[in-house]
TrEMBL record:
Keywords: Endonuclease, Hydrolase, Nuclease
Pfam families: GIY-YIG
InterPro entries noted in UniProt: GIY-YIG_endonuc, GIY-YIG_endonuc_sf, UPF0213_domain
Entry superkingdom: Bacteria
Domain named GIY-YIG: residues: 4-80
Protein name: Putative endonuclease
GO MF assignments: endonuclease activity
Family as reported in the entry's similarity comment: Belongs to the UPF0213 family.
Length: 105
């Protein structure tokens, strides 16, 4: 993945855990921010740090539109999207060279 690539992503607190949908142009940088809790908010308060799904696009407009659609989806639809490509809810950030997270509490 390029350093700057528009991306919509989903994080989870663990297997079937709390979900978060976001967008970024720098996925690895944003994952580090979530993992190190650089910003107070939903993800830090709910320990949502595991990358379980992502999709890249050519433009930020495209990923923002996709994020808005995903945020309106039912939880079951989001789970089905995750499990289509990641049935075990593995932390996909490891594939980008980030260290494994400790097991959820």
């Amino acid at each position: 993945m390029r350093e700057r690539q528009p991306c919509v992503y989903m994080l989870a607190s663990g297997f079937y855990g709390t979900l978060y949908v976001g967008v970024t142009s720098n996925l690895i940088g944003r994952l580090i921010q979530h993992r190190e809790e650089w910003m107070r908010g939903f993800t830090s308060e709910h320990a949502v740090k595991r990358l379980v799904w992502y999709e890249v696009a050519d433009t930020m407009d495209a990923v923002i539109a996709h994020e808005k659609r995903l945020k309106r989806w039912l939880r079951d639809w989001k789970i089905a999207l995750i499990e289509r490509d990641n049935p075990r809810w593995d932390d996909l950030a490891i594939g980008f060279g980030l260290p494994p997270l400790p097991p959820p509490r």
